[in-house]
Amino acid sequence: MRVLVNGIQVQYELEGPSSGPVVLLAHSLATNLSIWEPQVRMLAENFRVLRYDALGHGGTGVPAGPYTMDRLATQAAGLLGALGLERVHFMGLSMGGMIAQLLAIRAPRKLASLLLCSTTSRIPPEALALWQERIRIAETEGMEPLVEPTIGRWFTPPFRIAHPDVIDKVRAMIRATPPAGYSACCHAVSRLDLAAELQAIRAPTLMIVGEEDPGTPVEACRTIQEQIPGSELAIIPSASHLSNLEQTEPFNQAVSSFLARVV
Question: pTM of the predicted model, to two decimals?
Answer without folding.
Answer: 0.97
